[in-house]
Amino acid sequence: MNSFPHQLIYQPNGSPNGPVSPVHSPTHTPSPPTTSPGQTSPLSYPVSHGVPAIYSGGNMLFPFQSKLQPKLQSPLNHAFASHSLLNQNSGPPGQSLMQQTNMTVSQSHALSVTNTPHWQSQLSYYAICRNSNSPHHHARQAAAAARNSNLGNLGSSAIAITDPNNPNKPPLNGILPKKEKEANGEKQDQPFQQWMTIDLGGMGLKNISKELFHYNFLTTLYINHNNLTYVSSEISKLRNLTILDISGNKLSVLPPELGMLTNLRELLLFDNLLVNIPFELGTLYQLETLGLEGNVGLNDTIKSILQKDGTAAVIQFLRDNCQVPPRPIERDWIMLENEAGGDRDTFTLLCYNILCEKYATTQLYGYTPVWALEWDYRKELIMSEVLSYNADIVCLQEVDTSQYDEYFKDTFHNHGGYDSVYWPKSRAKTMADWEKKSVDGCATFYKSSKYQLIDKQLIEFNQVALQRPDFKKTDDMFNRVITKDNIAIVTLLENKETLSRVIVVNCHIHWDPTYADVKLVQVAMLMDELDKLAQKWCTSNSPYNYTSPQKISTIICGDFNSTPDSGVYEFLTRGIIRQDHDDFGDHRYGTYTSEGLSHKLSLKSAYSNIEELPFTNFTPSFTGVIDYVWYSTNTLSVTGLLGGIDKEYLTKMVGFPNAHFPSDHIVILAEFRVKPPQTIPQPPQFGLSNSGLQRRFNSSQLNSRR
Fold first, then answer.
1. How far apart are alpha carbons 469 and 59 in whole angstroms?
2. For residue 141, what pLDDT is reported?
3. CB-CB contact of 398 with 353 (8 Å)
4. Which homologous superfamily does the CATH classification assign to the domain defined by 117-138+194-321?
5. Which of 62, 141, 215, 553 could form a disulfide with 55 if both were Cys (CB 3.0 to 4.6 A apart)?
């Protein structure tokens, strides 16, 4: 059903269905020329340049661009420009606004008593909000601004308006989008852009259709000055909202799901009937303005914090005092093969980026309660979770040097029977002893009852790069690769009972998404160095006849900071990358970009046997798979995998860490069987297996097999 059946394009002269050149921001647009400049917005908002918006209500949709032209010289244009309330000569900040508004006695008294900048800003916004109670107030202001700024350029400002419920239908106003114009050989007058704003304000609405919440591309939504008594929890689907105005309604409660809208910068709730604010709104860590004035019965604690310390303090209070949600159900253990081979031929490996102490800050994780970021809380949760899986081999990333020495090393040994190998990142070499303690690195733990350490090796990517003669004359190597101090640690373990050996690589690749080339180069160097080590570790003095590197079982795991569509994933899976791969860009890295990359192992991501997990890293700004366990398919087979996080639990979470998950990453865990010596030469099998049976993972059941 089309919620907006009739659509009209608003042209600069004020009449529908004509060319338009939208230029004004949809966010708190100033009043028409008949009003004072003092009634304009004190702030501008982060809506993308040149993005048309549609203000909708009844039978009208108004498209316009998101930003006013930067230089407006005419007096008429000046009336539409933003004016800082702090620079007006008509009195204290916000005074001119309040003089033009029917302020109540209590509100005026609040301003005289509470003289903080936070509360003055609150009252200024409140006055502006009360002046926007006419139907489509923001749309009309935008249309007026468009008329004023484009009177001389009507011919080139038309944009296509499509049915929002069926964008494949031809534009209603006859304007063809870019791709259709080009197909017809026509020159594009203006880029075709999608509207991202809707204004349903001042219409007296009692209900909002849930169809509106399917428009998850919206960044701004005005449903102010209506007769709404509730807001549907489905509003949480509008994850891209940065501005939400629900002022001037009859709301007595808010849906806790508003806390899922973590991109919000403005949440205006003026003039409602609110008494309490859901603690779940504490996850709105990017919120800059929370409008609450005019809710007469508002909780005194919330109002006092807002008056004294502003929006950020209110969000912090809500966040740190929110009730801990119920724990998620245990993760599934997914069986891919039966256990006919017995314990002696199988082992489990766990990989986990634990989020080191110095990175777990409120600046980076503002949605997480402060107490849940505290290291003393998180380290116990990390240790409890890892030990509960009782894995034979544990590979951790982001382990602080001091935390390894003072906590992890002995605790893993005493409570899990693990010995370990640890190295910090390369920067530690240049630091004093007291500085080294805060440097993070990689740690590999192994069951001392099952394995003995044969050898170990540190791979420092910047040092390897310096030693390559083909890299010495490349500026990109010096400017982009050598400045990164990421590492990998390689251990050669031997099963004490079967004498089978396994190479375990634990690595942490550079994080920055703009350095895809560096990630690919680091992994390429890792594979080159690994081949050299495997050559050194070959031996015929073993029932497994390790006479070539390909015959030694190999695990490569860690935080690769690369998604499944990356060059890193492609390289490890396929064993080859062309020299002109997109991830290299225009950068030059010796033979890597002149001849391409290759490695000799037949590798496969353990989770690709079922399909990669929905995510291994979960934050409001990024949710995806970047952690992997790769294995040599000719020597190992996957018999079991730890499943993903409970989906129902995730519907109420904006990201990790939280009370139950101490890192922004999650544990990944796989069980492997070592193939008998006579089957090792068989070619690799790259087919997917989807026939595994699922059962509820129970750590005690896994423990019983060790």
1. 70
2. 85
3. yes
4. Ribonuclease Inhibitor (3.80.10.10)
5. 62
pTM of the model: 0.77
**What local confidence, expressed as pLDDT, does residue 56 receive?**
39
**Fold agreement (117-138+194-321, 333-674):** no
Element (H, E) at 672: strand 668-674
Residue 482 burial (10 A CB sphere; 0-12, 13-18, 19+): middle
Please tell me which residue in 476, 485, 559, 583 is annotated as part of the active site.
559
In the prediction, which pLDDT does 2 show?
40
> What length is written for the chain?
706
* Sequence-ordered list of residues with C-beta below 8 angstroms from that of 391, at least 6 positions apart, any chain: 348, 349, 350, 669
Is the backbone peptide bond immediately before 657 cis, with ω within 30 degrees of 0?
A: yes
**Class of 333-674 per CATH?**
alpha beta
Q: Where are the domains of the chain?
A: 117-138+194-321, 333-674
559 classed as catalytic: yes
Q: Are 612 and 602 in contact (CB under 8 A)?
A: no
Low-confidence ranges of the chain (pLDDT < 50): 1-106, 108-113, 152, 154-164, 171-193, 679-706
Closest among 290, 285, 250, 232 to 266, alpha carbons compared: 290
Rounded to whole angstroms, the Cα distance separating 562 from 625 reads: 8
Three-state SS letters, 578-643: CCCCHHHCCCCCCHHHHCCEECCCCEEEHHHHCCCCCCCEECCCCEECCEEEEEECCCEEEEEEEC
Instruction: For the beta carbon of residue 238, count every other beta carbon within 10 angstroms.
Output: 22
**638 burial level (CB within 10 Å; 0-12, 13-18, 19+):** buried
The pLDDT score that the predictor gives to residue 166 is: 54
Four-residue CA torsion sign, 323, 235, 45, 110: negative
- What angle is formed at CA 217 by the lines to CA 28 and CA 165, rounded to 5 degrees? 110
